[in-house]
Write a structure and sequence with these properties.
By secondary structure, the protein is mainly α. The chain has one domain. Helices cover 47% and strands 1% of the residues. The protein contains 13 helices and two strands. Strands 1-2 form a two-stranded antiparallel ribbon. Helix 7 crosses helix 12. The protein is globular. Bound molecules: fe (ii) ion (2 copies). One fe (ii) ion binds next to loops.
């Protein structure tokens, strides 16, 4: 397997560090019961915390309204690559965590464990597909995007930043912070306009949503598009931007989140046994190739 060593000047040793940090912020309730979570928190080394903090400093400084518009223009013509989903998984798997290859699962394993946990609980097959595809947008890294434009909690741009977003103090470095067009509660938006009219910070959620938007039910599209929008689905912020449709979709976004966060298992699923099921699933919903 090809190892792509991410740019050494980037703060995170691997993008998984952001997800490890999510687990510290939102521990699995089942682990709290067994005190596993507090142990994990205690083992959380200062240097790791510093890299995550530096990652958010960059993210909050650079994710401005203008930046997001530029990335939408750059990526949403889907003229970079056309691949079968299988080839896309291989492509994504070039992102390997070089810091700790023994314990960390590759990207595909995380996707498969998420989808398998969803399947085990008897949810609709399109939700299984969401599990399988939800982090595919991380290929943005392989197109040269820095970590802070691929992963991290997402949030609306073009209006005031919520203090429910992790490390809100770093937003003072963003060009939009003192821009009167963008720093009021509603900014460029109308009250309760609905999230579909709101531009989110650029990253892997929005990108995979845009790639998948013609193929799966609306509930699944919300899961893809907002799975990293923690200040909304975990903290309840941005009430004033929501419409009734968003409120109806929120339980689905919440339903998906634990499968993403808590399905990691050191035992890899038996892929040979699973392959026929997933081959059929992909055939049912997706065309032969996807455009990136
Ligand atoms: Fe994700
Ligand atoms: Fe994920």
């Amino acid at each position: 397997m090809t190892h792509v060593i991410t740019n050494q000047t980037q703060p995170l040793a691997s993008m998984d560090e952001w997800e490890d940090d999510l687990l510290r912020r939102y521990p699995n309730p089942e682990d709290i019961a067994t005190s596993k979570a507090t142990e994990a928190y205690r083992n959380y080394e200062e240097p790791a915390r510093d890299t995550v903090k530096e990652f958010y400093r960059l993210n909050h400084t650079h994710q401005s309204f203008a930046f997001v518009k530029e990335k939408q223009k750059e990526y949403l013509s889907f003229s970079r690559k056309e691949m079968s989903v299988w080839d896309a998984f291989d492509f994504l798997n070039q992102l390997v965590d070089d810091s700790d290859p023994d314990t960390d699962l590759d990207q595909f394993q995380h996707l498969l464990q998420t989808s398998e946990a969803i399947r085990r609980d008897g949810h609709p097959d399109w939700m299984v597909l969401v599990g399988l595809m939800h982090d595919m947008g991380k290929v943005l890294c392989l197109f040269g995007e820095p970590q802070w434009a691929v992963v991290g909690d997402t949030f609306p741009v073009g209006c005031a930043y919520s203090d429910k977003i992790v490390y809100p103090e770093f937003f003072s470095e963003n060009v939009d912070f003192n821009d009167a067009r963008y720093n009021s509660e509603l900014g460029v938006y109308e009250k309760n306009c609905g999230l579909r009219k709101v531009d989110m910070s650029w990253g892997h959620d929005e990108y995979i949503y845009q790639i998948m938007k013609n193929y799966i039910p609306e509930e699944g599209l919300y899961m893809l598009r907002y799975h990293s929008f923690y200040s909304w689905h975990r903290e309840g912020a941005y009430e004033y931007l929501l419409d009734d449709h968003d409120k109806a979709m929120l339980p689905w976004v919440k339903l998906f989140n634990p499968y993403d966060l808590y399905s990691k298992n050191p035992e890899p699923p038996n892929w040979d046994e699973l392959r026929p099921y997933y081959t059929n699933l992909l055939k049912k919903y997706l065309p032969e190739t996807l455009k990136f």
